[in-house]
Amino acid sequence: MFNSMKDPRFTHDCKTCMYLGQYREFDVYWCPNSDWSDTFGGGSAIARYSSEPSDYKSMPLSVILYADHDMGILSIVAREILRKGYVKLKIHREAIEKDRDIYDDLWKKGERC
User: Fold this and answer.
1) Chain segment 58-84, per-residue pLDDT in tens
2) How many folded domains does the chain comprise?
3) How far apart are CA 109 and CA 113, in angstroms?
């Protein structure tokens, strides 16, 4: 899903983050050691859109997965982290079904790499 063959376009200063690749205008990462990891587990999804230190979006995986709405790029990053098996979280059947519906909608709209 992500173009992992390319190096990051933007500077990212966290040494524990795992670079996952590029998706559209974002460099995407998984941070296993985020501030929320101890509380919720799973680390955080990160989408960086410039080298400016404040120019990124991030959210704990558990918050993204249990949200009652799509969180755009962060939802896409979270699903890819789970798909690749970096994190194993127990999620409710309803969340799995919602996730499948989101993927189906993206596929129909042509929003894929």
Assistant:
1) 988 878 877 767 888 999 998 888 888
2) 1
3) 12
- Residues 30-60: tens digit of each pLDDT: 998 765 555 556 788 999 999 999 999 998 8
β strands within the chain, DSSP E: 18-23, 26-31, 44-48, 56-60
Task: Output the DSSP codes for 80-109.
Answer: HHHHTTS------HHHHHHHHHHHHHHHHH
Parent domain of 93: 18-109
Q: Is residue 80 assigned to a domain?
A: yes
Q: How far is CA 15 from CA 9, 30, 31, 90, in A?
A: 16, 11, 9, 27
